[in-house]
Specification:
It is a single chain. The chain has a single domain, classed as MFS general substrate transporter like domains (Growth Hormone, Chain: A). 76% of the residues lie in helices and 0% in strands. It is globular.
């Protein structure tokens, strides 16, 4: 949403590109700082309340952005959106992992994570249209307030026992992770490799999504509604097809090789990178749109499998904690940095060069996953044996 209307906000508030990038980073920064604490709490208490509260908070904060009278007030609202997102994103994958067995978890995660490209695309398309026709303040109101309906509905979500899909009885309700378990998570090699790859991926994709509408308006000379509509439609098509395909393909490969999730992701990211670069440098608009679709398709292939892989190598009783630490790291080193960095490079050089620079880490992400294949099967077996709580400890 913010990426769709930031050209209008820049005009009203007289902001630099660096300040625009900071608006994108503020949400992510607060999100990642709140995630570890929420993750620990969510592994102790009913998860549907965290989901409901998170959706309610980010919906109210989005609507509240309409009331901002300067850069700092808008920055505060963006931070509040981040707290709401932390309440949702650390908890939902943990809950899903307890509803679906390991053999179909990649597909379940892929269905869930199609919400990212679909929701992002809807925000871009609706934000651009509403912003151009009704102003950016009204756009925030119209997009934010309906989320309260979803917040109420979330109160009726099921909350199965931790580990319900991994064993007959689930885990011991009294055994919950402690703060020290965040350190122990980093000793799981495939968890560490997966998080490193997601960090590079988030750096690239976060910067691209935040700046692409502005790039299309400023460099390609499209009007805001046209730019956001085309970018949004391409993102929703590529994201939906890529995420859905990746779940089925990832589960199929995982049944045939212990590191199938990582193998598919490493190859997909390597294929998608050249197409993404071509989408920025090609001057033919039609060819650039095709390359953008292909780049995003291959990028989104990995979403479900990599989150399923993350869940599979973490003991069932501390999955929310595991996702929380992952969120903290990938955003601290990933898309917290990329929007303001792109803005600073744009102020110094130009926006095209700045976006191309943000693609470099994607090559490292591909290499990380191909390297991490060798660890995944061992780590899944170890997580299944440990069962809960203290990593590496044998329970009697």
């Amino acid at each position: 949403m913010i990426s769709a209307v930031q050209v209008l906000i820049q005009r009203d508030f007289g902001l630099s590109d660096t300040q625009l990038g900071t608006l994108g980073a503020a949400f992510i920064l607060v999100y990642m700082l709140a995630a570890p604490a929420i993750g620990l709490m969510a592994d102790r208490w009913p998860r549907q309340y965290f989901i409901s509260g998170g959706v309610a908070l980010w919906s109210l904060a989005t609507a509240g952005s309409a009331m901002a009278r300067n850069f700092w007030q808008l920055l505060l609202m963006r931070g509040a959106v981040g707290i709401g997102e932390a309440g949702y994103a650390t908890v939902s994958p943990s809950l899903l992992s307890d509803l679906f067995p390991r053999s179909t978890r990649g597909r379940a995660m892929s269905v869930f994570y199609t919400a990212i490209p679909v929701g992002s695309a809807l925000g871009i398309v609706l934000g651009g249209y509403l912003g151009q026709h009704y102003g950016w303040r009204n756009a925030f109101l119209m997009v934010g307030l309906p989320g309260l309906i979803a917040a109420v509905a979330a109160l009726w979500l099921p909350d199965p026992p931790r580990g319900a899909s991994d064993s007959q009885d689930g885990d011991d309700p009294g055994d919950r992770p402690a703060l020290v378990d965040y350190v122990r998570l980093l000793k799981i090699r495939s968890y560490l490799v997966n998080t490193a790859g997601m960090t590079c991926y988030s750096f690239c994709l976060g910067g691209l999504i935040h700046w692409m509408p502005t790039f299309l308006v400023r460099v390609r000379d499209l009007d805001l509604a046209e730019a956001t509509t085309w970018f949004g439609l391409i993102t929703v098509a590529a994201g939906f097809l890529g995420t859905a395909t990746g779940g089925w393909l990832g589960d199929w490969l995982q049944e045939r090789t212990p590191g199938g999730y990582f193998l598919m992701s490493g190859i997909a990211l390597g294929i998608g990178l050249p197409f993404a670069v071509l989408a920025i440098i090609l001057t033919n608009t039609s060819a650039a749109w095709v390359c953008l679709f292909l780049g995003e398709f291959f990028f989104f292939l990995n979403t479900g499998p990599l989150n399923a892989a993350l869940a599979n190598v973490v003991p069932a009783s501390m999955r929310a904690t595991g996702f929380a630490l992952n969120i903290f790291i990938i955003h601290l080193l990933g898309d917290v940095a990329s929007p303001p960095l792109i803005g600073a490079l744009s102020d110094t050089f130009d926006l095209k060069f700045a976006i191309l620079v943000c693609f470099v880490p994607m090559a490292f992400a591909s290499a990380f996953y191909l390297y991490g294949m060798q660890f995944y099967g061992v780590d899944v077996a170890r997580a299944a044996r440990s069962g809960c709580g203290n990593l590496g400890a044998n329970k009697s």
